[in-house]
Amino acid sequence: MKLAITARGYKAPDRIKAYVLDKAKRLDRFSDLIMDGQVILSYEKQDQIVEFKVRLKHKTIVIKERSEDIFKSIDLGIDNLERQVVRAKEKLREHKGQKIVENLEA
Asked: Which of 77, 80, 84, 94 is at a distance of 20 to 30 A from 26, taking alpha carbons?
C-alpha cells in the first residue's frame, strides 16, 4: 500500500513518520482491497490531529482523530481505520456471488 504523509503547519519529525508507517503495516492484510492512502498531521492549539484518507476499490474512508498526544491520535485512527476496512470487506463479501434473480425468487 502506498502511503503519503503530509504535515500542515510544521515539519514532521522522522520518528513520527516511521511510527505512522509501522502502524500502517497492520493494514497490509487488506492489501487486496486498499488502493492507496494519505495521512495528514496537523495541530490546533493543544490538540494534535491526524486525518487518514484511504481509497478502497469501491469507496473512500476518511477518519479524523484528535487528542493531546500525536501518537495517541495515530493509534486511535489506525484502530478506527482497521474497523472500517473490515466492515467494508465484509459487506463486499456478503454481496459477492448473489444474483438478482435469486433475491427476487425468495
From this structure: 94
